C-alpha cells in the first residue's frame, strides 16, 4: 500500500476507534502525557507531568514515548511512570484515558489514532509565537516542507462534504490550548481555528521552576539560540551567512571573560566543516539538544531572532536581545511574523554579527527595560502556573 493509502486507512481507523469507544468508558483520573513527536522528554507537558505526579497521587499519570532512552530515564525516577507507545498496554491506556497532554498535537506526541472519542485533549503548546503558525502560516502560502508538515490526501477529497464533516465531528476530541496572555489567546484562536472558550489563559509549566530560581547575573555565559530556517532537518550555516568571524568573536569573549554557546533549532544543523572549525575556539561552544529549560536560568544573556524563547526569557527575567538577522529574507522565504522585531524590542536591532557584538557590550553594561513587552505576553510572575492549570483542568473535567 502506498503512502496515500496508509493515510486514508489511518483516518478510517480513527473513525472506527471513535465508534467502538462509544462502548468503552474513560477511566476517571487517568492522564497521559507526551511531547515532541513522542521522541523527547521536555517542554510544558513534561513539567506538568512531573507536577501532577508529585502533587496529585490520586491521579494516574503516565508518560507515553517511542524513545527507549526516555522510557528508561523516566521509569528510573521515583514516583514517575512511562509506557512505550506501541505496546498493547499503551493501546489500552489510550482507549481509557480521561485526559491527555501534549505540546505539538495529540496525533504526533501520543498515539492519537487510538484515543477514546470522550478523551479531553489539553495542548499545552511549546511557546508564544513571533512567526506565524498553524492556519495563519498555511494561509500565507508558505510551503508545507518549510512548516514541517507533510502533504496528505484525506478522506475529504474522497467523500461528499456533508459525510466527511459528520465523520470529522464524530471523531474529533474536545481540545483546549494553553496561552500565556490574552494577546497569545487571540493568536491561537486564529492559528488553530478554535474559539475563545477553548483557550486556557495561564503560565507555562516549564517556566515555573525558572521563575522561582535566582538569576545568574554574572555567570559569564551567553546563549545564541535562533529559530529554524529553510526546510525541516536541513543544514544551515547561520553564522557565516551573517558575518560570524570566530577569531574576532573568540577574542571579544576572552576580553570580556565570557563564553558563547551556539544552539541551533533541532530542525537545523551547522555544516560539519563549521563544527570542526569551531572546536579550535575555546570560548565558543556548540550546544546539544538536551532540554534547554533545565539550564536556561544559567545564562547571563540570551540572543535569539524569531523564536518564542524571547518571551520565555522575559518571563523568567533573563536578559535577552533580539537579533533578527536576514529579516526581509526570512519573511519572504520562511514565514511572515505576527509582530515586527521593532515592536517586540524597541531598541537598536543588530542585522549581523559585527553589529551584534557591539549591542552585546552595551546590553551587558546597562540592560534594557522590556517590562511592557513582558506584561503583554506573560501574566504569571510567581511560578505557580502548574498549580493553577490543574485547578482549571479539574473544573473542565468535572463540569
From TrEMBL:
GO CC annotations? Answer: plasma membrane
Q: Which InterPro entries match?
A: Glycerophosphate_synth (IPR007554), TagF_C (IPR043148), TagF_N (IPR043149), Teichoic_Acid_Biosynth (IPR051612)
Report the subcellular localization: Cell membrane
Name the predominant localization.
membrane
- One GO molecular-function entry: CDP-glycerol glycerophosphotransferase activity
Q: TM spans, by residue? A: 6-26
Q: Which range is the signal sequence, renumbered to this chain?
A: none
Sorted keywords for this record are: Cell membrane, Membrane, Teichoic acid biosynthesis, Transferase, Transmembrane, Transmembrane helix
Q: Which GO terms describe its biological process?
A: teichoic acid biosynthetic process
**What's its membrane topology?**
Peripheral membrane protein
What family, per the record?
Answer: Belongs to the CDP-glycerol glycerophosphotransferase family.
Q: What name does this protein carry?
A: CDP-glycerol--glycerophosphate glycerophosphotransferase
